[in-house]
Amino acid sequence: MSMLTDSTELPASTGTIKVVLVDDQALFRAGIRMVVSSQRDLEFVGEAGDGQEGVEVVARTKPDVVLMDIRMPVMDGIAATAAILEQADRERRRAPRILVLTTFDLDEAATRAIRGGASGFVLKDSDPEFLLAAIRTVHAGTSVIAASATRELFEHFDGRSSGAKQVPEAFHSLTTRERDIFQSAARGLSNSEIASLEYLSEATVKTHISRILAKLSLRDRVQLVVYAYEHGLTS
Q1: Domain 3-156, what architecture?
Q2: Closest CA to 23 of 64, 80, 62
Q3: Which residues carry this modification: 4-aspartylphosphate (predicted)?
Q4: For the chain, which terminal residue's Cβ has fewer other Cβ atoms within 10 angstroms, N or C?
Protein backbone atom coordinates (compact mmCIF):
# COMPACT_ATOMS: atom_id res chain seq x y z
CA MET A 1 0.00 0.00 0.00
CA SER A 2 1.41 3.37 -0.98
CA MET A 3 0.61 6.52 0.92
CA LEU A 4 1.20 8.46 -2.30
CA THR A 5 -1.65 6.97 -4.29
CA ASP A 6 -4.22 9.12 -2.52
CA SER A 7 -4.91 12.56 -3.92
CA THR A 8 -4.55 15.26 -1.30
CA GLU A 9 -6.74 18.33 -1.52
CA LEU A 10 -4.72 21.54 -1.35
CA PRO A 11 -6.57 24.25 0.57
CA ALA A 12 -6.57 27.88 -0.46
CA SER A 13 -3.95 29.99 1.23
CA THR A 14 -5.10 31.22 4.64
CA GLY A 15 -1.87 32.82 5.86
CA THR A 16 1.32 31.39 7.29
CA ILE A 17 1.03 27.93 8.87
CA LYS A 18 3.33 27.55 11.88
CA VAL A 19 5.01 24.13 12.10
CA VAL A 20 6.87 22.33 14.91
CA LEU A 21 8.81 19.08 14.40
CA VAL A 22 9.39 16.50 17.15
CA ASP A 23 11.82 13.71 16.22
CA ASP A 24 14.87 12.18 17.86
CA GLN A 25 16.98 12.06 14.68
CA ALA A 26 18.90 15.31 14.18
CA LEU A 27 19.63 14.66 10.50
CA PHE A 28 15.97 13.98 9.77
CA ARG A 29 14.97 17.18 11.60
CA ALA A 30 17.45 19.17 9.52
CA GLY A 31 15.99 17.85 6.28
CA ILE A 32 12.39 18.54 7.27
CA ARG A 33 13.33 22.00 8.53
CA MET A 34 14.80 22.84 5.11
CA VAL A 35 11.75 21.51 3.25
CA VAL A 36 9.24 23.38 5.41
CA SER A 37 11.26 26.61 5.49
CA SER A 38 11.42 26.67 1.68
CA GLN A 39 7.66 27.31 1.48
CA ARG A 40 6.21 30.83 1.56
CA ASP A 41 3.05 29.77 3.36
CA LEU A 42 4.80 27.67 6.03
CA GLU A 43 6.88 28.86 8.98
CA PHE A 44 9.16 26.47 10.88
CA VAL A 45 8.89 27.74 14.49
CA GLY A 46 10.56 25.03 16.55
CA GLU A 47 11.87 21.49 16.94
CA ALA A 48 12.52 18.96 19.69
CA GLY A 49 14.39 15.69 20.09
CA ASP A 50 11.96 13.91 22.41
CA GLY A 51 8.30 14.04 23.37
CA GLN A 52 8.76 15.91 26.65
CA GLU A 53 10.78 18.64 24.99
CA GLY A 54 8.18 18.67 22.22
CA VAL A 55 5.39 19.44 24.67
CA GLU A 56 7.43 22.36 26.01
CA VAL A 57 8.24 23.71 22.52
CA VAL A 58 4.57 23.52 21.49
CA ALA A 59 3.50 25.35 24.65
CA ARG A 60 6.01 28.11 23.90
CA THR A 61 5.50 28.51 20.15
CA LYS A 62 1.79 27.58 19.78
CA PRO A 63 2.08 26.11 16.27
CA ASP A 64 -0.76 25.25 13.91
CA VAL A 65 0.65 21.83 12.96
CA VAL A 66 3.00 19.47 14.82
CA LEU A 67 4.94 16.72 13.02
CA MET A 68 5.31 14.04 15.69
CA ASP A 69 7.55 10.97 15.60
CA ILE A 70 6.13 8.00 17.52
CA ARG A 71 9.16 6.23 18.94
CA MET A 72 11.39 8.58 20.95
CA PRO A 73 13.26 8.58 24.27
CA VAL A 74 12.00 10.24 27.47
CA MET A 75 8.40 10.50 26.19
CA ASP A 76 7.05 8.83 23.07
CA GLY A 77 4.85 10.49 20.46
CA ILE A 78 1.62 8.93 21.74
CA ALA A 79 2.09 10.34 25.24
CA ALA A 80 3.30 13.68 23.84
CA THR A 81 0.23 13.96 21.60
CA ALA A 82 -2.07 13.39 24.58
CA ALA A 83 -0.15 15.93 26.68
CA ILE A 84 -0.29 18.61 23.97
CA LEU A 85 -4.03 18.20 23.49
CA GLU A 86 -4.71 18.14 27.23
CA GLN A 87 -2.65 21.30 27.67
CA ALA A 88 -4.65 23.08 24.95
CA ASP A 89 -7.92 21.99 26.57
CA ARG A 90 -6.79 23.25 29.97
CA GLU A 91 -5.83 26.61 28.51
CA ARG A 92 -9.03 26.71 26.41
CA ARG A 93 -7.18 27.42 23.20
CA ARG A 94 -7.27 25.74 19.84
CA ALA A 95 -5.08 22.67 19.80
CA PRO A 96 -2.58 22.20 16.98
CA ARG A 97 -3.19 19.52 14.38
CA ILE A 98 -0.78 16.67 15.03
CA LEU A 99 0.61 14.60 12.15
CA VAL A 100 2.22 11.34 13.25
CA LEU A 101 5.43 10.31 11.49
CA THR A 102 5.90 6.57 11.07
CA THR A 103 8.25 4.27 9.17
CA PHE A 104 5.68 1.74 7.96
CA ASP A 105 2.04 1.72 6.85
CA LEU A 106 0.35 -0.70 9.24
CA ASP A 107 1.74 0.68 12.47
CA GLU A 108 -0.43 -0.08 15.49
CA ALA A 109 1.26 2.78 17.36
CA ALA A 110 -0.04 5.18 14.68
CA THR A 111 -3.54 3.80 15.28
CA ARG A 112 -3.18 4.49 19.00
CA ALA A 113 -1.87 7.99 18.35
CA ILE A 114 -4.84 8.79 16.10
CA ARG A 115 -7.22 7.38 18.71
CA GLY A 116 -5.49 9.72 21.16
CA GLY A 117 -6.21 12.78 19.05
CA ALA A 118 -3.64 12.92 16.23
CA SER A 119 -5.10 14.19 12.96
CA GLY A 120 -3.40 11.71 10.63
CA PHE A 121 -0.20 9.90 9.81
CA VAL A 122 2.51 10.27 7.19
CA LEU A 123 5.28 7.86 6.24
CA LYS A 124 8.76 9.17 6.96
CA ASP A 125 9.92 8.26 3.47
CA SER A 126 7.07 10.12 1.74
CA ASP A 127 8.01 12.57 -1.01
CA PRO A 128 8.55 16.13 0.28
CA GLU A 129 5.62 17.31 -1.87
CA PHE A 130 3.32 14.84 -0.14
CA LEU A 131 4.45 15.94 3.32
CA LEU A 132 3.90 19.60 2.44
CA ALA A 133 0.46 18.83 1.03
CA ALA A 134 -0.36 16.86 4.18
CA ILE A 135 0.57 19.81 6.40
CA ARG A 136 -1.67 22.14 4.39
CA THR A 137 -4.53 19.66 4.25
CA VAL A 138 -4.57 18.83 7.94
CA HIS A 139 -4.43 22.54 8.74
CA ALA A 140 -7.42 23.27 6.48
CA GLY A 141 -9.38 20.31 7.82
CA THR A 142 -11.14 19.70 4.49
CA SER A 143 -10.20 16.04 4.01
CA VAL A 144 -8.48 13.04 5.56
CA ILE A 145 -4.82 12.60 4.62
CA ALA A 146 -4.20 9.42 2.60
CA ALA A 147 -7.79 8.33 3.15
CA SER A 148 -7.44 4.75 1.86
CA ALA A 149 -4.28 4.21 3.94
CA THR A 150 -6.07 5.51 7.04
CA ARG A 151 -9.06 3.23 6.41
CA GLU A 152 -6.75 0.24 5.89
CA LEU A 153 -4.96 1.04 9.14
CA PHE A 154 -8.21 0.87 11.11
CA GLU A 155 -9.59 -2.09 9.18
CA HIS A 156 -6.40 -4.01 9.97
CA PHE A 157 -6.38 -3.35 13.71
CA ASP A 158 -10.13 -2.90 14.39
CA GLY A 159 -11.33 -5.64 12.05
CA ARG A 160 -10.13 -8.30 14.48
CA SER A 161 -12.69 -7.27 17.12
CA SER A 162 -16.01 -9.08 16.99
CA GLY A 163 -19.51 -8.63 18.34
CA ALA A 164 -22.17 -6.03 17.91
CA LYS A 165 -21.19 -2.47 18.72
CA GLN A 166 -23.57 -0.07 20.41
CA VAL A 167 -24.41 3.10 18.51
CA PRO A 168 -23.99 6.15 20.79
CA GLU A 169 -27.11 8.16 21.58
CA ALA A 170 -25.48 11.28 20.11
CA PHE A 171 -25.40 9.66 16.66
CA HIS A 172 -29.21 9.49 16.64
CA SER A 173 -29.30 13.29 16.88
CA LEU A 174 -27.92 13.58 13.33
CA THR A 175 -30.41 14.41 10.60
CA THR A 176 -30.79 12.11 7.58
CA ARG A 177 -28.66 14.47 5.50
CA GLU A 178 -26.01 14.63 8.22
CA ARG A 179 -25.89 10.83 8.41
CA ASP A 180 -25.34 10.63 4.65
CA ILE A 181 -22.51 13.15 4.88
CA PHE A 182 -21.14 11.35 7.95
CA GLN A 183 -20.87 8.13 5.91
CA SER A 184 -19.06 9.91 3.08
CA ALA A 185 -16.67 11.63 5.50
CA ALA A 186 -16.04 8.31 7.27
CA ARG A 187 -14.91 6.91 3.92
CA GLY A 188 -12.39 9.75 3.75
CA LEU A 189 -14.06 11.82 1.03
CA SER A 190 -13.10 15.50 0.86
CA ASN A 191 -15.54 18.41 1.00
CA SER A 192 -15.44 18.78 -2.78
CA GLU A 193 -16.07 15.06 -3.30
CA ILE A 194 -19.00 15.06 -0.88
CA ALA A 195 -20.40 18.20 -2.51
CA SER A 196 -20.38 16.49 -5.89
CA LEU A 197 -21.95 13.32 -4.49
CA GLU A 198 -24.71 15.11 -2.58
CA TYR A 199 -25.30 17.92 -5.11
CA LEU A 200 -24.41 20.57 -2.54
CA SER A 201 -22.01 23.48 -2.44
CA GLU A 202 -18.69 22.98 -0.64
CA ALA A 203 -19.70 25.70 1.83
CA THR A 204 -22.85 23.77 2.71
CA VAL A 205 -20.86 20.56 3.17
CA LYS A 206 -18.42 22.39 5.42
CA THR A 207 -21.33 23.63 7.54
CA HIS A 208 -22.76 20.11 7.82
CA ILE A 209 -19.38 18.66 8.78
CA SER A 210 -18.96 21.30 11.50
CA ARG A 211 -22.40 20.46 12.91
CA ILE A 212 -21.68 16.73 12.83
CA LEU A 213 -18.36 17.17 14.67
CA ALA A 214 -20.06 19.39 17.26
CA LYS A 215 -22.96 16.97 17.84
CA LEU A 216 -20.61 14.01 18.24
CA SER A 217 -18.01 15.99 20.25
CA LEU A 218 -15.25 15.14 17.76
CA ARG A 219 -12.08 17.14 17.23
CA ASP A 220 -11.68 16.72 13.46
CA ARG A 221 -12.40 14.56 10.43
CA VAL A 222 -9.97 11.78 11.21
CA GLN A 223 -11.59 11.45 14.64
CA LEU A 224 -14.87 11.03 12.74
CA VAL A 225 -13.28 8.08 10.92
CA VAL A 226 -12.17 6.61 14.27
CA TYR A 227 -15.69 7.11 15.67
CA ALA A 228 -17.23 5.30 12.71
CA TYR A 229 -14.94 2.28 13.09
CA GLU A 230 -15.24 2.12 16.87
CA HIS A 231 -19.03 2.04 16.74
CA GLY A 232 -19.52 -0.11 13.66
CA LEU A 233 -20.90 2.76 11.57
CA THR A 234 -18.84 2.19 8.44
CA SER A 235 -20.73 1.09 5.36
Answers
A1: 3-Layer(aba) Sandwich (3.40)
A2: 80
A3: 69
A4: C
